[in-house]
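Lab notes, practical 5.
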Amino acid sequence: MASATLFISRAEGQPGRYLVVINGEGFHNSVGAEVAARVRGDDPVFDDSLFSIGVGIPNHVLPDGSFSLSTVVP
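Output from the prediction step:
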């Protein structure tokens, strides 16, 4: 079964910034497909898009069905 996991941690040596990593696995039917993600808040009133990862950068599902996206955000 395909799944994706989100990790958020403090960015080392960058006060006030966070490293965001999304790892996916099990996407065997999507090998070579372009990958991107949108991270949204869960506030019921202001469910705004917080940021995107992988947009404009060629990220693809690997032959083993996995992918990894990462960025540093404020």
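Observations recorded by the TA: DSSP finds no helices and five strands in the chain. The first strand starts at residue 3 and ends at 10.
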